UniProtKB/TrEMBL annotation:
Lineage, broadest ranks: Bacteria, Pseudomonadati, Pseudomonadota, Betaproteobacteria, Burkholderiales
UniProt-recorded name of the protein: Small ribosomal subunit biogenesis GTPase RsgA
Keyword Transit peptide carried by entry: no
Cofactors (names): Zn(2+)
Binding site for GTP: 152-155, 206-214
Length: 355
């Protein structure tokens, strides 16, 4: 399979050319198609094979965020007659999906890379949640990825209820395209298929059970991926257990991934400003540059709320995400300083011991 069919566009090709020169002779370019507990699958012109990181790569990586994730382009050495590969180098990422690592660890977790469009999937029944939707939008915007919203399970709600849900989304200032889908009737699936362009990479973001796997099977034209029956609440059960890049028959590439329960903000200020562009635009007209949009005089954001052009709930979620990102950014910076200080201590100790 040619590399451009795997998504190697002009920007990535230039980066690949520069990286290939620095990697040295005998190495080829390939794309990471799956990551599962430190094991990798890569795909190049010769096909898809298992791969492992070299010891040097692991030694030089300062954090997990510098390790390959699904969608990354890497420099590899083919082994065992092309049935195995070693990953030597990670190419620059044109776009990415990342979040704060789950739990107490204040570190980035890379989810996927080099994505053109993120299909943000929400069910119209129990799953619909505008606060979670805003977090997904921040994640996509922060990684320089175009968002498209997919509202699934439209067969479970009335047309009037569906219009109300769309109205809630538009009230947030979201101008992204919205496609309404029913995996039962197949309505809207052709619209999604028409959005997929050969050589471009797409991903599905959403909670477990919103119909992501069923949608992929419809796009694939079969039952290649396992699905499970919905529960008594009307919600599907979790199926996908690992992130993987799938090559569609029409030529596009789609990354499937498990539902994410935690969407912590870290280093996401650019994404927050882009996802809340309506508030950011108003804030530029506030009297004070550091306006907190509370009781300050001359606050254009508060004025918009009083005119009922902006909802208080929308503003509070914006402020909450900013505060969360600020807190995690400081914690991350403090940890990096401690890690560097510890590294200097270890280096000094080894130098004294060996001297």
């Amino acid at each position: 399979m040619e590399l451009n069919a795997l998504g190697l566009d002009r920007w990535l090709a230039n980066a690949a050319g520069e990286a290939a020169e620095s990697c040295g002779p005998g190495l080829s370019i390939a794309r990471v198609t799956a990551v599962d507990r430190g094991r990798y699958l890569i795909r190049g012109e010769g096909g898809e094979v298992p791969a492992e990181l070299t010891g040097k790569f692991l030694h030089l990586a300062e954090s997990a965020a510098e390790l390959p994730c699904v969608g990354d382009w890497v420099c590899v050495h083919w082994r065992d007659a092309g049935t195995q590969a070693s990953i030597h180098h990670l190419l620059p990422r044109r776009s990415f999906l990342r979040r704060k690592a789950a739990g107490r660890d204040v570190e980035f977790q890379m989810i996927a890379a080099n994505i053109d469009v993120a299909f943000i999937v929400q069910g119209c029944h129990f799953d619909f949640n505008v606060r979670r939707l805003e977090r997904y939008l921040v994640m996509a915007r922060d990684g320089h990825i175009e968002p498209v919203l997919l509202l699934t399970k439209t067969d479970l709600v009335t047309p009037e209820a569906l219009d109300q849900l769309i109205g809630q989304i538009r009230a947030l200032g979201v101008d992204a395209r919205i496609v309404c889908i029913s995996n039962v009737t197949g309505s809207g699936v052709d619209q999604v298929r028409e959005l997929i362009v050969p050589g471009r990479t797409y991903c599905l973001l959403g909670s477990s059970g919103v119909g992501k796997t069923t949608l992929i099977n419809r796009l694939l034209g079969g039952d290649s991926l396992e699905t499970r029956e919905v529960s008594h609440t009307g919600e599907g059960r979790h199926t996908t257990t690992r992130r993987q890049l799938i090559v569609l028959e029409q030529g596009g590439l789609l990354i499937d991934m498990p539902g994410m329960r935690e969407l912590g903000m870290l280093g996401a200020h650019e994404g927050i400003e882009a996802a809340f562009a309506d508030i950011a635009s108003l804030a530029r007209s506030c009297r004070y540059p550091d306006c907190r949009h509370g009781s300050e005089p001359g606050c254009e954001v508060r004025a918009a709320i009083e005119r009922r052009e902006l909802s208080e709930e929308h503003l509070q979620n914006y402020l909450k995400l900013q505060k969360e990102s600020d807190f995690n950014d400081l914690s991350h910076l403090d940890r990096r300083r401690k890690d560097r200080a510890f590294g200097r201590f270890v280096h000094s100790y080894k130098k004294q011991r060996d001297g």
